[in-house]
Design brief:
By secondary structure, the protein is mostly helical. It has a single domain, classed as Amino acid/polyamine transporter I (Up-down Bundle), CATH 1.20.1740.10. Helix content is 73%, strand content 1%. It has a two-stranded antiparallel ribbon. A hairpin with a 5-residue loop joins β1 and β2. The radius of gyration is 21 Å and the shape is globular. About 1% of the residues have low confidence.
């Protein structure tokens, strides 16, 4: 058995029924515990563009949201959706969408816990995430139980490792692939070097520089990509409703689609839909709360609501648009799957956007490059904070340097196996994050009732933010 097969077997195991039950079960459970906090989406969207300058924090609420979105709106929304359709069938799109709808409650809850238990470092900068929720959430008389310290360390370790895959290598590999498919004469090492320079120019400046870049980049690229999707949907209009029906049918019945050229089966649709849904919106992963902890917010509920909108935009809107575009394109062009020419997600997405004369392919190419680049920036901060937790401030610079090196290596030769490895590390970091959120769900539900449902969103949290000494 070769190494690729072993990795695929591990991926199938970690994303088997137990993980799906844990993920979807948590989404549904937290939806009820927060009294369907998704109902507050209009308020959350309004808060996301509202400044709160007098509140404690390092960056604006919008800056934290766009930085988190920069890490989630990426190849998962484009290639990831196509990969899920090819492997799990059209029904995977519905499971991705449902993962997003119910995942909004999980994103809210994990962010609430992260902001509630955030701390300051020796310079006054905010630190937060599941590792601090584990420690401060169960600390008594200045002592942290061994199991809480283990949960904190496990999350930081898995998230730090995951950042090199999902955040760096996968994205630079995707950038290289899309560039070479349209300009085959460019050497891969040259693309890798350009990526390394572009990444280095931003990430060494810290979260404030990253957030400023993302505030400008994310809205532009998201609107441009959504516009391209809407144009294709308009061109395939007569196939849109049949595409939606096929998505629902394949999600609940073992139906082979497009002559058996793509995956089929309820379990395959559910498995790949959930896996790619988490890869896309990261609800339950624990990544976005790391940067949300740096936001200027007067209480945890405000930033939790803002973070919740990230899952809405990422999966409920953009992934849904992508799924409908791809399935309707396959229905409109029945021969697209013949001959085995469409074997990878990138090929299917390219074929769909190529249907827009003149500008379709450039939109996809530019969108893929910007999405992947912004994801590299966002995940660099996540890994940065995990390295700081595990090794102290002395671990940050080595981590950043290694992160850039991995981005270069990803550009010059990492294949599809990286997607599989990223799926595995996603699952490994999701487990300690989901567990701590579930353990703290009573506190989250109680304070959500106070802040959100009793009309106290403008109330300031008077609890002091402790300072931790760096190593």
């Amino acid at each position: 058995m070769d190494i690729v097969q072993i990795i695929n077997d591990i991926d199938a195991f970690v994303w088997g029924p137990p993980m799906i039950v844990l993920l979807l079960g948590s989404h549904v459970y937290l939806t009820f515990r927060t009294r369907f906090v998704q109902r507050k989406l209009p308020t959350a969207i309004k808060l996301s563009v509202t400044k709160d300058p007098d509140a404690p924090g390092d960056i604006s609420q919008f800056g934290a949201l766009t930085t988190a979105l920069s890490a989630t709106i990426g190849t998962g929304n484009i290639v990831g959706v196509a990969t899920a359709i090819l492997a799990g069938g059209p029904g995977a799109v519905l499971w991705m969408w449902l993962t997003g709808v119910f995942g909004m409650a999980t994103k809210y809850s994990e962010t609430f816990a992260a902001v509630k238990y955030r701390v300051r470092d020796h310079k006054g900068d905010m630190l937060g995430g599941a590792m601090y929720a584990w420690r401060r959430g169960f600390e008594k008389d200045g002592r942290v139980p061994w199991w809480a310290a283990l949960g904190a360390g496990a999350f930081a370790l898995f998230a730090g490792i995951a950042s090199f895959g999902i955040g760096s290598a996968v994205q630079s590999s995707a950038m290289t692939g899309i560039i070479l498919s349209n300009a085959p004469g460019i050497p891969a090492w040259g693309i890798g070097l350009a990526i390394a320079i572009m990444v280095s120019a931003v990430i060494f400046g810290g979260v404030k520089v990253i957030s400023k870049v993302c505030e400008k980049l994310v809205p532009f690229m998201a609107i441009a990509y959504a516009w391209g999707c809407i144009v294709i949907i308009g061109m395939n209009w007569e196939h849109v409703w049949p595409a939606i029906c096929l998505i629902f049918e394949c999600a609940f019945t073992p139906k082979a689609a497009f002559g058996g050229a793509v995956g089929s089966g309820i379990m395959m649709a559910l498995q790949f839909g959930c896996a790619r849904g988490l890869f896309s919106n990261e609800s339950g992963l624990g990544s976005a709360p790391i940067v949300a902890s740096a936001a200027s917010t007067r209480n945890p509920a405000r930033q939790a609501l803002v973070s919740m909108t990230g899952t809405f935009w990422d999966t409920v809107v953009i992934c849904a648009l992508t799924g409908i575009v791809l399935v309707s394109t396959m229905l409109a062009n029945p021969g697209i799957m013949e001959g085995g020419t469409i074997a990878e997600g990138a090929d299917l997405t390219s074929a769909a956007f190529a249907s827009i004369p003149y500008i379709g392919t450039p939109i996809l190419v530019i969108g893929m490059i910007l999405f992947a680049y912004s994801t590299i920036l966002g995940w660099s901060y996540y890994g940065n904070r995990c390295a700081a937790y595990l090794f102290g401030k002395r671990g940050v610079r080595p981590y950043q340097a290694l992160y850039v090196v991995v981005a270069f290596l990803g550009a010059i030769g990492v294949g599809d196996v990286v997607w599989t490895v990223s799926d595995i590390t996603n699952a490994l970091m999701a487990v300690p994050n989901i567990v701590v959120v579930l353990l703290l769900s009573g506190m989250i539900a109680r304070e959500t009732r106070r802040y959100v449902w009793e009309g106290n969103l403008d109330e300031a949290d008077e609890a002091p933010i402790p300072v931790v000494e760096g190593k």
